[in-house]
Design goal:
14 helices, four-stranded mixed sheet, elongated, 23 strands, 2 domains, binds uridine-diphosphate-N-acetylglucosamine
């Protein structure tokens, strides 16, 4: 098992390049099940989750050729040999559920064990089920040998439907959009998720011949087509990785320019950093974040679906707020159990108090190095930031969570002066 050892190296300075988006590439890869043609995806981040998705697609019969030097993947789902996902892969990655929509649309059947991934709440799939059922799938959930549940969807033909999502779920919007692309007739998703990853997926499926309008807004209209063809696509930059490096610049009082990022995708993070006194400038080279000698101050945060403040940046921002002048609160409205990093940050002296979905951060703390655990992906990133400013050495265990979502994190932090190494 790998650990990260981190020492305080002062302010981070220089340039860091963001990789392709984890949350965009996974559904893009799943979408290649919608056609038997050749597909190409470029700007692919080198991540554990991408490897798991490659394994999943191969298990269905896809021919997958990864060239991670070149950050590209060629995929061809010529013949689907099974529509049952292997439980051992699905357990490793919750996003496996996005294979359900395309598999169902292509073959009329999909069996997916209920997914794993970050343990940040119950993470139900009722909206995926509701959407696919409305499109004409029969859904059953049954127990499999190891006590896990498996969801089975079958259809003798999907048809368009009007679907209202109680919550704008990213995964459910993606699954419904992919299934509806090959359904007979028009589908309308209301209260759809508006995340940039949804737009990227719609753009890709449209390149494959689909007719999707409105992605990025709360009503998406999908006119089903008979078949889709292969297409090439370049993944959008990872806005969560970008936000993590923006916070790394802020917390270390550094001066970092983040390249290959789309400033529009991180507006809420930039706005909150500015409220705290950071200078965030979009330059021709990238987004430059610095303090310029200022002492950062507290702010309050409420996580929301896009375009609100992203829950995936909440843990990293909390680490920053632990160190600034004044007390802050964070209200987590997206996931009910996304405060596992508090216990770890408190081991480093943050003194954060949790009350239900609200966290009270007294601020002004000098963090101390300690042995801490990455309880999930973004909690792990939060601990990396804590380690960069803590007095003494920080050891983070269970960093496989971090590797699920950050390409070359050690190299990237080192490039801007971070003292971080991986030890097996
Ligand atoms: C995606 C992202 C994840 C991010 C999250 C919210 C991927 C691979 N992961 O996860 O990094 O934190 O969006 O921005 O893209 N919900 C239901 N029923 C459902 C589905 C979801 O009640 O059927 C609820 C969830 O419990 C949660 C909320 O909806 O409270 C948002 O979840 P969702 O948007 O579906 O997140 P994911 O797609 O799993």
């Amino acid at each position: 098992m790998s650990k990260f050892i981190i020492d305080n190296a002062g302010s981070l300075t220089g340039f860091v390049e963001v990789s392709g988006s984890k949350n965009a590439v996974l559904p893009l890869m799943a979408a290649t099940l919608l056609t038997d043609d050749d597909c190409l995806i470029t700007e692919v981040p080198n991540l554990m989750d991408v490897e798991v998705m490659c394994g999943l697609l191969r298990s269905f019969g896809s021919n997958v050729r990864c060239d991670m030097e070149d950050h590209s993947i060629e995929l061809k789902a010529g013949d689907i040999i099974t529509n049952e996902a292997p439980a051992e892969l699905v357990k490793k990655m919750r996003a496996s559920i996005v294979a359900m929509g395309p598999l169902l649309a292509r073959t009329g059947q999909a069996r997916i064990p209920l997914p794993g991934g970050c343990a940040i709440g119950d993470r139900p799939i009722d909206l995926h089920v509701k959407g696919l059922h409305a499109l004409g799938a029969d859904i059953t959930i049954y127990r499999i040998e190891d006590g896990h549940e498996c969801v089975e969807a079958t259809t003798d033909g999907l048809h368009g439907a009007e679907i209202y999502l109680d919550t704008p779920s990213v995964g459910a919007t993606e699954n419904i959009m992919m299934a509806a692309a090959l359904a007979d007739g028009v589908t309308v998703i209301e209260n759809a998720a508006q995340e940039p990853e949804i737009v990227d997926l719609a753009n890709y499926i449209n390149k494959m011949g689909a007719r999707i309008k409105g992605a990025g807004m709360d009503i998406i209209k999908i006119e089903g087509v008979k078949s889709l063809h292969g297409a090439a696509h370049s993944v959008i930059p990872d806005r969560i990785e970008a936000g993590t490096f923006m916070l790394a610049a802020a917390i270390t009082g550094g001066d970092v320019t983040i390249t290959n990022m789309l400033p529009d995708h991180v507006k809420p993070v930039a706005a909150k950093l500015r409220e705290c006194g950071c200078i965030v400038e979009n330059t021709l080279e990238g987004t430059r974040v610095r303090l310029n000698g200022r002492s950062p101050i507290a702010t309050d945060i409420k996580t929301l679906p896009y375009p609100g403040f992203p829950t995936d940046i909440q843990p990293q921002f909390m680490t920053f707020l632990a160190t600034v002048r004044g007390s802050s609160t964070i209200l987590e409205t997206v996931f009910e159990n996304r405060f596992m990093h508090i216990e770890q940050l408190n081991k480093m002296g943050a003194k954060i108090r949790e009350d239900g979905r609200r966290a009270y951060i007294p601020g002004g703390m000098t963090l101390k190095g300690n042995e801490v655990t990455a309880t999930d992906l973004r909690a792990g990133a939060a601990l990396v930031l804590a380690g960069l400013v803590a007095e003494g050495e920080t050891t983070i265990s269970d960093v496989y969570h971090i590797d699920r979502g950050y390409d070359s994190i050690i190299e990237k932090f080192r490039a801007v002066g971070g003292k971080i190494e991986r030890r097996e």
